[in-house]
Specification:
The protein has 113 residues and is α/β, with parallel strands linked by helices. Helix content is 25%, strand content 25%.
């Protein structure tokens, strides 16, 4: 993609007219890959990276390209490099198979039952 959509955390690749892959740069705050899909009237972000800085770039670029706010965020799974950027999308609906907070709490014994 052109330099208008530059991030030091990932490179953006257009897969089709409406699908974009954000490929993590080695040693960056992204760690894992992410992406977004423009559905015309809604936008889905898939995974949110490892750091807030990387997820802020993803949100900004997705909203610039689609000309609309992110509607949904889908977390593929609970690992930190896929969910730690969720805080950037506080105004979006987050879809996750298991609440990342719940999973982490049960793994590390910090849950309240």
């Amino acid at each position: 993609m052109n330099d208008e959509f530059y991030s030091k955390h990932f490179t953006l690749e257009q897969i089709s007219k409406t699908i974009f892959a954000a490929i993590a740069k080695e040693g960056s705050g992204a760690v894992a890959n992410a992406g977004f899909v423009d559905l015309g009237d809604k936008v889905i972000v898939f995974d949110t990276f490892n750091t807030q800085q990387a997820s802020e770039d993803l949100k900004l670029i997705a909203e610039r390209i689609t000309n609309q706010t992110v509607t949904w965020v889908v977390n593929s799974h609970w690992h930190g490099d896929h969910i730690r950027g969720n805080q950037t999308f506080k105004d979006s609906i987050i879809i996750s198979s298991v609440s990342p907070k719940y999973k982490k709490a049960h793994l590390f014994g910090t849950h309240n039952e």
